[in-house]
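Re: the request from the purification team.
They wanted to know what the chain is likely to look like in 3D before they choose a buffer screen. I agreed to run a prediction and write the result into the notebook, where they can find it.
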Amino acid sequence: QVQLVESGGGLVQAGGSLRLSCAASGRTFSKYAMGWFRQAPGKEREFVAGINWSGGDTGYADSVKGRFTISRDSAKNTVYLQMISLKPEDTAVYYCTARYGSRWYTSGYAYWGQGTQVTVSL
């Protein structure tokens, strides 16, 4: 079992930056691949970024590639999403996710945080 708690969301102007954090409970954090998803109002939840259990492999949705960076600190049981050059269309609730296993995927995550709101204004 993994419990996930996100933080770092907020209101930012277009072009600005935010860093989301996700603190994971449990002693086996290193055995889980991690991911970030988001859901905008009226839209389906979508994959944003994933990272494997060692942190050596990452993947991104095309819409955020080159602007977002996912990383993890196993000593702190924390995964991060650094977001730069934010756009109004990045406005959404962002969710941290985990799945047991080494590889990240774009779906199939069993554990979810409660979400953190990111709002990007013009």
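For the purification team: The radius of gyration is 13 Å.
Please add any questions underneath this entry.
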